[in-house]
Design brief:
Number of domains: 2
Shape: globular
Distance between the termini: 33 Å
Order of helices and strands: EHHEHEHEHEHHE
Number of strands: 6
CATH topology of the largest domain: TIM Barrel
Radius of gyration: 21 Å
Mean pLDDT: 86
Helix content: 25-40%
CATH superfamily of the largest domain: Metal-dependent hydrolases
CATH class of the largest domain: Alpha Beta
Length: 255
């Protein structure tokens, strides 16, 4: 640990120092001040801030609400928000993160297009929001191809999907123009449910070639385990490994 007047440690080692920067023996006293690194939120869906207060409990009219019912409410919001809404929601979410001690966020971004079809307008809104509150943003442009194993995308996912893997990679490459001034970029696979094996392989290979981070929703629901086994004969993690998506620059959520 350091006092406010000494440089922060740059390793995982914790030490006690005096006011002159000398390491000393003994436990921390009540007069010691601690300096800790800021937190990193590796996985954010900022637009889902609009759901807050509406989906935490099962509805009185449908006591059997579950994740899949929640998802329908999320789709409705995702298809209704404008770029102005996105910027406002992200600013709100990121500001609360800053207040809680977070200094960086990975934004799992798949609400790509506005009503005019501009695929980068939402990305620009997120970048503005992060810069406005002083949050370092890694924009994780997310690949989404289908509704699920053997199921084409439906209307609720129209803002998420790309027709081909080449379309997605062109979009991901275009998003790199947003990098700088506190904004970094990476790519993500929404899930093994939403991305077929050839997409997983292509996105992972592109991320390695371009030296960009890769982020993956590995397995959020039990149904994904069952359907992945039915389609690929293995677990989601095994599929990601088979497709070259696991490596030192990969982060997994819901693994």
């Amino acid at each position: 640990m350091t006092t406010a007047d000494t440089p922060p440690a740059r390793s995982a080692t914790v030490a006690v120092v005096d006011d002159h920067g000398n390491v000393r023996d003994g436990a921390l006293g009540t007069a010691d001040r601690l300096r800790l690194p800021g937190f990193v939120n590796a996985h954010s869906h900022a637009f889902q801030r609009a759901l807050r207060g509406r989906v935490e409990r099962r509805s009185a009219t449908n006591p059997n609400d579950d994740f899949w019912a929640w998802r329908e409410a999320m789709y409705a919001d995702a298809n209704a928000i404008s770029p102005v809404d996105m910027e406002a929601l992200a600013t709100w979410a990121y500001l609360d993160m800053v207040r809680a001690g977070f200094v960086a966020v990975g934004e799992f971004h798949y609400v790509h297009a506005d009503a005019d079809g501009d695929r980068l307008v939402m990305s620009r809104a997120l970048a503005r929001a992060a810069r406005a509150v002083g949050m370092h943003l890694v924009l994780l442009t997310t690949a989404y191809a289908r509704a699920g194993f053997g199921r084409p995308a439906h209307d609720g996912q129209r803002r998420f999907v790309f027709a081909t893997i080449d379309d997605f990679l062109r979009h991901a490459d275009g998003s790199r123009a947003l990098a700088g001034d506190g904004v970094g970029v990476g790519v993500a696979l929404h899930s093994v449910r939403a991305c077929p094996a050839d997409w997983i392989h292509a996105v992972a290979a592109w991320a390695r070639t371009e030296r960009l981070p890769l982020h993956v929703h590995a397995c959020e629901q039990r149904r994904e385990l069952d359907e992945c086994a039915a389609e690929h004969g293995c677990s989601p993690i095994a599929l990601l490994e088979r497709c070259g998506a696991l490596g030192p620059s990969t982060t997994l959520i819901h693994a």
